[in-house]
Automatic annotation (TrEMBL):
Residues 22-202 form the Class II aldolase/adducin N-terminal domain. Pfam families: Aldolase_II (PF00596). NCBIfam families: PRK07044.1. It comes from Ectopseudomonas composti. This is Ribulose-phosphate 3-epimerase.
Amino acid sequence: MNAMTDFSKPAHCSDEEWALRVKLAYCYHLVDWFGWTETIFNHISARLPGPAHHYLVNPFGLNYSEVTPGNLLKVDLHGKKLEPSPYDGNPAGFALHSAVHGARDDIQCVIHTHTTPISAVVQKKRGFTHDDFYGAQLHGRIGYHTFEGITLFDDEKARMIESLGDKHVLVLRNHGIAVGESSIEKTFFLLWTVQRAAENQCAAGALGGEDNPLEEGIAAKCSDLTAMLIRESGFATQFYAAMVRKMRAERAMHW
């Protein structure tokens, strides 16, 4: 399969859905390009327009670099495929993604990762600190969920949603993170922020000497300002478009 050639819009697919598929496929490629994948595991989903809470997610078994607009799965909140596909989804992803898409209408995209820096931070009892530039942007935006094993079972959904509350970052303790926002672009930017916060926290923790803590009010101000910029400007869209251009130039992609 050549991921660069599967780019023809099927006749039955609306222009709106196809645009979402293209954007989501790029998101998978960006996560791969940044080196944040977990081989064929983890998942990114995008909710389709409409009241049914259907969403798109990756076919299980493919590398992120092999995900295309055409091979993304369309599923319902039970993980059931709504269109024929030779691929199945990852059962471990349905509980998490269907829980969020079913409960939070303000979240249109969910990205789950557990890179080494993120996994290290969420293993620590204190979780994320807010004493660096990126960590400060997450002040008040993180919910914490106690590890219950691989997220396969429906009974955990309500507890995950309770842990998330009204936040947009869910720390899955001893596991990884899930981030969600009102668009793919905003979700990707939030993921990038969380990843940078984890990298900085790990690097600072490896150094000797005492940390210089930020006042809580300063961290809260930084978080509120970032949220406002993301919500009220094209900041995240510009960032996403720039990253796609850079990736396409380096990979000579011809979508």
